[in-house]
Design goal:
With 293 residues, the protein is an alpha+beta fold. The protein is 29% helix and 34% strand. It has a 15-stranded mixed beta sheet that branches.
């Protein structure tokens, strides 16, 4: 029996909670509201019973009240336990810091906390590096990511399936440089959002750089990368906006980097250049900024 069934959640919500734990909080809210509504209904029923049966002895009133209060307590107890378990799943680490060089901080509630090797990172972790400042992260699916100097990076989403495979990973890079060695996943996605582009892969090794002018450069070493310009240059785009657009055909087509050493650049005008082979000098300069961790 699945854990959701043990807690008696409504069947219509089961697939959502199992496939997308991010909706877990909504499930809790929905069901707690339902439990509260039932509690109010039962309390009103109890009040009505007391009025109508005021002539009954107290023992009779208590016998009428007992099943109602037990039902309310049982319902609230189930969802309280479900909330605890679900909160624990949200707090589970999705990555570990393997090494640090220079100034690297984990931003928590606007405050910078120095990061060290062994630090566990959860969903929502925001990393900012100084100059110099680099960090090497290893995710629970085996993927490895390096954050370079003067970068602002965030783990927005990281979900694993019940079979231990990556289901969805979404990163955000405001500024700076990152390299990624993404482990293959049959049905799992890996995206990086920047102010001017969205990259999507399933398993590959590639670089993403965002300059101070918010121009995004993407280079693939192995595998393939799909690069889409941001629908709203200058803002961190929603990867679903292309689907929601009333005129999706008006958006520039994505750029496919499907051969080693290909790269592209996406600008503030919402355009990504054609894929071209990068010169060794350019690639080596970027790799130098990622070394040492």
């Amino acid at each position: 029996m699945r854990v959701w069934q043990c807690f008696g959640l409504y069947p219509s919500i089961l697939p959502i909670c199992e496939r997308c734990p991010v909706v877990c909080r909504w499930c809790i809210s929905y069901n707690l509201k339902s439990a509260y509504a039932r509690a109010i209904r039962d309390a009103n029923l109890l009040s009505e019973l007391r009025k109508r049966n005021s002539f009954l002895p107290m023992t009779s009133t208590e016998s009428l009240m007992k099943p109602i209060t037990q039902n309310v307590a049982r319902t609230l107890g189930r969802f309280a336990l479900f909330a605890v378990l679900c909160s624990s799943s949200f707090a589970a680490p999705v990555a570990e810091v393997k090494s640090v060089k220079g100034e690297v901080n984990l931003m928590v509630a606007g405050k910078a906390t120095p990061m060290v090797a062994g630090t566990k990172l959860e969903r929502g972790a925001e990393i900012r590096t100084g100059n110099p400042g680099r960090a090497k992260l290893q995710f629970i699916d085996g993927s490895v990511l390096i954050v370079s100097d003067a970068s602002s990076f965030k783990i927005e989403q990281f979900e694993m399936s019940s079979q231990g495979q990556r289901r969805a990973a979404q990163m955000a890079l405001d500024v700076g440089l990152i390299s990624q060695v993404v482990q293959p996943a049959t049905d799992g996605s890996w995206t990086v959002r920047t102010p001017t582009a969205v990259t999507a892969v399933r398993g590959t090794e590639y670089l993403v750089e965002v300059g101070s002018d918010q121009v995004t450069a993407v280079h693939v070493k192995t595998g393939s990368v799909v690069v889409e310009p941001s629908p709203t240059p200058g803002f961190m785009p929603d990867p679903l906006m292309r689907r929601r657009s009333l005129h999706p055909s008006s958006l520039p087509p994505p750029v496919m980097l499907n051969q080693p050493n290909l790269g592209t650049v996406c600008n503030m005008a919402g355009r990504c250049g054609n894929s071209t082979a990068w010169k060794p000098e350019r690639v080596n300069a970027l790799m130098d900024r990622l070394s040492g961790v």
